[in-house]
Amino acid sequence: MNKQKFTKVITKYGTMITLGLIIIGFSLFIDGFVALKNLANILKQIALLTVIAEGFTMCLIVDELDLSFANIACLSGIISGGLILAGKPTIVAIIVPLLVGFAFGLASGLLVTKVGISSLITTLAMSILATGLTYWITGGVSFYGEMPASFLMLGRGYFLGIPSLILIMIITVVVAHILINKTKTGIYLQATGANQEATKLSGVNTDAYKILALIICGVAASFTGILLTSKLGAANPEAASGYMMDTFAASLLGTTVLSIGLASPIGTFIGALMIGVLNNGMTLAGAQYFMQDIIKGIIIILSVSIASSQAKKLAKN
Amino acid sequence: MTILQTKGLTKRFQGVVALSDVDFDLEKGEIHAIVGENGAGKSTFVKLLAGIHTPTKGTYYFNGKETLFSSPKEAMPYVGLVHQDRELIPTFNGYKNLFLGSELSKIGLLDNAKMKEQCERIREKYKLNINLDKPVMELGTGQQEMMTILKILFRHPPVLIFDEPTASLSMQESEILFSLIKDLQINGFSIIYISHRLPEVLSLANRISVLKNGKKVITLENKGISEQQLISYMISKNLEAQYPKIDKEIKDTIFEVKNYSCEKENLHNLSYYVRRGEIVGFAGLVGAGRTELNLSLFSGPGKNTQSVFMEGTPFSSSSPRESIKKGLVMIPEDRRGQGVIIGMSIKENIILPNMNTLSTRGFVNKKKIDRFSQDIVSRLSIIASSNEQLVRTLSGGNQQKVAIGKWLGAGAKVWIFDEPTQGIDVETKSEIYKMLGNFAKNGAGVIFISSDLRELTEIADRIYVMCEHKITSEFKSPFVANDILTKMIGVEK
């Protein structure tokens, strides 16, 4: 294998190789890591992270940022829990919060494309707005109570022996992958992010695709909030706020998978998997919670910097 | 039959006339070349034709009908413009780029096989050798250019415009392009071809139009014309600007570059020198390497260099900051982007590089600052309502004065000016010439990069010509503009 080929392989599969090495390392040193049940556990743990991160990935693909998704998820979880505990039908408790996520995404999209505010600032404001609404509704307390089985199915149920959360995650990743790689919409989302001017000149309404990406992100966040309420059987105003950093981490790690520097649904899934494996392995190994964050931080920096330095080398050739 | 015609086409940008009263016509199936110096208005003209700009005045006929393209998208079915910034999505492969905006799909999913097949068919038709499966960023410049052309051909506009298509191509790639263009002509396309390279133009075109200072000089049938003849039409003989004569004495060498190479900028073994009291001009076409050479020297030729000398001692520098400290200052070509900070006031811009002398123990000294900036504003007669005025709101000429003024306190020994008079009114031009002269008179060396041959020959004491990243010749006053232009274009007599 010559040097350039080696570089190419490292660039393309570096993150996956790292993931493989971590899994092998954990399997050798930690009892019970490989057990099938534990792997199912890991997948269940990353299911919600994957769903919300796939939404965020859409924003990265159109070259925008979203800082509001975690707080939209909190708000949606609360609305969903509130409705179900107020005795509304399950379908209402799902549709209404999804519409809220849609509205947030649409509003951000319009502000970014039509008013021209940067997405960073727009979604930061949206995130504060969502937090405000959450505390207005809850007064700062969690909602507990008896929830109907039809609602709890979402986050706790099984289908054909597979946990519903894992199924939902798989469906989300597959749908996102097909959307991005196999449909016109996906091509336009990618092209908008890669070279907006050229895409516009090709007759594509690039604004519409930026709005679409922010809407998908909002809806995915809401869906995550609903799933979280169902999984916990309660609605907590801060339940989803922890997804902010892990989503960034998963999506950023995702940009080092397959094609360097580009976000992709599969990449994001691998990124989420890496985080899940690290969390799980370190917990089993008895590492303290702060050690987990430190090690996660270091691994992200290493992985991303290896990939980007290799990408630079490739670009030079 | 005339397919495209303009009458009195005029374009002004913020009061500056870029194109004035151009009458032009393109016959169906002909190759019509447009030649002219930098800034003659060629690019503005084709941008008007392709709907990128809208004309200030004048009419535009397409197939005999009066037309106005208000956006590139509207012009697309009629006029295809191949220009230097290639409009491709770097991460997409060939056929995805080609079909962008008109993808084929089957039950909602992309029909990649069919798109690829159609793409291959067009590729075959024009006998283009392009890899359609690789992301275009992995292709060479020649293939990327072919891809751009293929993308435009795909929409089949009857008129094709090539704006300096060979600028970044190798000889071999250029040859392929020429045969493609001739092929396209046979296939019935009408072609407008813009180039600096006269031999290309003479071998391809049916007719040639010459632009000069935004006006059309003449349209010639390409029969028995020589390069020299074309050049004589291209050179401006305007005497609008005043060229002040400043008595100065040329002394010993102050800055010297000996066999300097810079891999990154593709510069190899270049040598030149500047003496105290001397203005040294750099002539060349866009992309000849004048900016790259001088900017790489200013950015720092490195630590242990034995090829750059300031006042006889090796000049080692690894950053603009270090170069400035050692007496080398550059006023960049991109005035608004690099020369000044347009969102800050005149005063703030001027004091920025002089903060060390204007502050006491880290605290700014308001009195000193006011005195200092006022002094420079009046020395350069910068016209503004106050020193607090934002640079954004100044005219181009005054912005340039600010860009120069901020270095007056730096004690520069060698000044590099990159296109200092571009987009500046005539009066301010003469003021800038005077500044250059005075810097030299006070014992500095001045390097003057310009695409305006007239001003170079009037202001410089000596002129280097660069062509394709090499210094190809050196001229001493008195200058013969035709000889210099011939060298710039790289034509052998």
Helices and strands, with pairings:
The complex is a heterodimer of chains A (317) and B (493).
Chain A: H1 3-29, H2 36-61, H3 69-85, H4 90-115, H5 119-138, H6 149-156, E1 158-159, E2 162-163, H7 164-182, H8 184-194, H9 196-201, H10 206-232, H11 243-254, H12 265-284, H13 289-316
Antiparallel strand pairs in A: 1-2
Helix pairs in contact in A: 1-12, 1-13, 2-7, 2-10, 2-11, 2-12, 3-4, 3-5, 3-10, 4-5, 4-10, 6-10, 7-8, 8-10, 11-12, 12-13
Chain B: E1 2-13, E2 16-27, E3 31-35, H1 42-49, E4 57-62, E5 65-66, H2 72-75, E6 79-82, H3 94-98, E7 105-106, E8 109-110, H4 112-125, H5 141-155, E9 159-163, H6 171-186, E10 190-194, H7 198-204, E11 207-212, E12 215-221, H8 227-234, E13 253-262, E14 267-275, E15 279-284, H9 290-298, E16 308-310, E17 313-314, H10 320-325, E18 328-331, H11 335-339, H12 346-351, H13 355-358, E19 359-360, E20 363-364, H14 366-379, H15 396-405, E21 414-418, H16 426-441, E22 445-449, H17 453-459, E23 462-467, E24 470-476, H18 481-489
Parallel strand pairs in B: 3-10, 3-11, 6-9, 9-10, 15-22, 15-23, 18-21, 21-22
Antiparallel strand pairs in B: 1-2, 1-4, 4-5, 7-8, 11-12, 13-14, 13-16, 16-17, 19-20, 23-24
